[in-house]
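FORM 12-B: Structure-to-Sequence Request
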């Protein structure tokens, strides 16, 4: 659906409001739009999109289905966002950026111009990505949600390093099963972020 500032006003005044969604009375299309949202020309937004408060969306932006955009986000011109993407609060996205499906972007992230982010990438908060960077799918985990850097280790069999631990996939699975994992006391971090990062890294190894 093409969305304009006038369309937002129409949606809020005429569409049914139910379960935190504005629903088109004639179709299954639904959207949630916060306060103070500003949208430029020719912006296309998919179904099931959540837009937070005081978001600014530039000209020619395309947003896929089931995307969640936090508060105080700025999206530059001609940005393409895939399906099932989560964008945190106070994120700045430059122009001509392409974001794949199932991407997670943390709070206070700055993304430069002409950046390409592949499917399944997780970007932690306070990360800055310069212009003309390409992040291939599932290959890079940019996170400062803890003091650790998480990545795959070239070896045979391949291993995953998280915190001070380096294990094969099979070893990590056993550690999870017996409940001994805590990454040096950061169990809350593991439960909130670590599992997602691990699954992405594991997929990356299996994909190669």
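FORM 12-B RESPONSE
SEQUENCE OUT:
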């Amino acid at each position: 659906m093409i969305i304009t500032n006038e369309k937002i006003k129409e949606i809020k005044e005429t569409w049914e409001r139910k379960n935190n969604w504005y629903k088109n009375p004639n179709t299954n299309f639904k959207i949630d739009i916060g306060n103070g949202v500003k949208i430029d020309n020719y912006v296309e937004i998919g179904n099931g999109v959540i837009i937070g408060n005081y978001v600014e969306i530039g000209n020619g932006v395309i947003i896929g289905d089931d995307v969640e955009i936090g508060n105080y986000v700025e999206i530059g011109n001609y940005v393409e966002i895939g399906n099932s993407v989560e964008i945190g609060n106070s994120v700045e996205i430059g122009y001509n950026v392409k974001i794949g499906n199932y991407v997670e972007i943390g709070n206070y992230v700055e993304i430069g111009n002409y950046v390409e982010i592949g499917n399944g990438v997780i970007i932690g908060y306070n990360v800055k990505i310069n212009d003309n960077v390409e992040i291939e799918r599932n290959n890079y985990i940019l996170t400062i949600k803890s003091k650790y850097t998480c990545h795959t280790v070239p070896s045979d069999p391949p291993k995953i390093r998280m915190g001070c631990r380096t294990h094969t996939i099979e070893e990590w699975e056993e550690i999870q099963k017996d409940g001994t994992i805590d990454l040096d006391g950061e169990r809350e971090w593991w439960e909130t972020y670590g599992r997602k990062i691990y699954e992405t890294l594991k997929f990356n190894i299996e994909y190669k």
